[in-house]
Specification:
Blueprint: H1 23-31, H2 36-45, E1 47-48, E2 51-52, H3 56-69, H4 75-87, H5 96-115, H6 123-136, H7 140-148, H8 151-161
Antiparallel strand pairs: 1-2
Helix pairs in contact: 3-4, 3-5, 4-6, 4-7, 5-6, 6-7
Length: about 160
């Protein structure tokens, strides 16, 4: 992970094209009590209307580390990871300093989820966990389907096939 005190963070654009220093936010995810306000900031600055910024990429390993450390998985972390990775091809170039850590974290996420102590997940957590597993294994379209199709839409789709 790109250390939070690394100067490479300076000047990275956020999802809205501005400058948002997300280091305190990421530190709070790992060391503080996570509130809805933290998730709101993540949803506004790391991914915004399917758009990512340069700062989104080094944030992903921190979101994955948050999941690894958490007793209970928050669906927001998985949904953010999924949304960022799905938006990556149309986003800005990934900074060279974070490319290795980003892909290593994405590929490690399926095993982190498999080893997580929380064994019962709600619908949203399951949906985005499966999306992240698909993305971590190179299945981008399946990752997109799981991220974008609600349980109700999936049930309706299966009913049409019968």
């Amino acid at each position: 992970m790109l250390p939070l005190n690394d100067p490479s963070w300076d000047g990275l654009t956020d999802a809205m094209g501005g400058q948002f220093d997300c280091r305190m936010l990421l530190d709070e995810l790992l060391n503080g009590e996570v509130t809805e306000g933290v998730w709101d900031l993540c949803w506004n600055y790391l991914i915004y209307q399917d758009t990512v910024g340069e700062v989104s990429y080094p944030a992903v390993p921190y979101l994955i580390e948050y999941i690894r450390r958490s007793v209970t998985i928050d669906w927001n972390a998985l949904a953010l990871i999924s949304a960022i990775d799905l938006a990556r091809p149309s986003g800005p170039a990934m900074p060279v300093a974070v490319k290795h850590d980003y892909f290593q974290a994405i590929h490690a996420l399926p095993q982190i989820l498999a080893n997580h102590p929380q064994t019962q997940w709600d619908d949203l957590t399951t949906r985005f966990a499966v999306s992240c597993i698909a993305l971590g294994r190179g299945q981008r379209e399946l990752g997109r389907i799981y991220a974008e199709m609600s349980l109700e839409e999936g049930i309706a789709w299966t009913m049409k096939r019968d």
